[in-house]
Amino acid sequence: MAPVKFCSILALLMTIVYAVNWDVQTDLDVYVHSDDGYYSWEILTEYRYNACTMYIVNMTSQKWQDESYVDHPIWWHFMGVAVPDEDNITYPDAGFLFIDGGSNDPYDEPPEENEDENIAVCIAAVDLGVVGAYIKAVPNQPLIFLNDPQQMSRKEDSIIAWTWRTYIDDPTPDPTVILRMPMTKAAKRGLDTVTAVAQEKAPFTNVSRFMVTGASKRGWTTWSLSATDRRVIAAAPMVFSLLNFDQTLMAHYQSMEGAWSFAFDPYYRENLTKELFNPKTHEVFDIEDMYTYKERLTLPIIEVVAAGDEFFLCQDSNYWWNGIPDPKWI
């Protein structure tokens, strides 16, 4: 077969995207909603702002893998849960969650009273008349993987790239090694914690529906949480427009005239940019690419795009916008 014709067939196959609705249970669903016995939370302190109490919480979301795979398997997060006074709650069943990143270690101190995040979330909660919250350290990082010959202390894309390489190289791969699993579960446990803390401290609340948001990898997690937890009724993913991986990644490659942005360096270092036609890469994409879940994404979505992040093209949405149900805005 002529090389050009063969490449054309491969490109056509890459445009076929597996899609799931709520009737199909995926590996991501199973992991996110399973109870591993590690979930817990504790209120550390509280702060008062105008018409609002901010509860600072230490929450353990899960045990991801074990010490034979990664040096930090038990994930924990500082959270802030802002509960307006009863007279300032308009929607006692509603809340919002901001998914944040950052690093964590056992010596980290809880967020202090005058940190911007505490003040901003309290102001927004009172203005909206709902319970508001943030969750930090999604993902927990840095991480060192035991079978990494470099024993590199990894963060962000370097972690994601390593988990993709681990899956692809394993003859009998375990989908739970992919970082989308624990990141989404951490956010899901964040929702659980918001409801529980608010109900304990303000019994007049019963938070059962959420708007969620986050940026970059947390924008990715905003998409994946929206696709796996029906309590999410609105979403504003920020700085993550990479859906429909096959077409968007091909567009990235072509726009650079056969090269990749420096932002793809962690994936390049793991030789993942050479694996786009590997069937096992497409197994990873079935989990990681939120376009797979487009039939579930019927909630209102505001996609916030940033032009200064060279991981993304400004025209990324051209490759998935029409496939995502309305209502949506960009």
Task: Explain this structure.
It is a single chain. This protein is an alpha/beta fold and 330 residues long. It has a single domain, classed as 3-Layer(aba) Sandwich (Rossmann fold). It has helices at 3-14, 27-33, 116-128, 156-169, 180-201, 217-226, 245-255, 265-269, 279-288; strands at residues 40-49, 52-63, 74-84, 94-99, 131-135, 209-215, 232-238, 301-302, 328-329. A hairpin with a 2-residue loop joins strand 1 and strand 2 (52-63). The radius of gyration is 20 Å and the shape is globular. It starts with a helix and ends with a strand. The model is unreliable at 1-17 (pLDDT under 50).
Brief digest:
Keywords: Signal. The protein is of the alpha/beta class.
Features:
single chain, 330 residues, alpha/beta, Rossmann fold, 32% helix, 19% strand, globular, disordered N terminus, signal, PhoPQ-act_pathogen-rel_PqaA, AB_hydrolase_fold
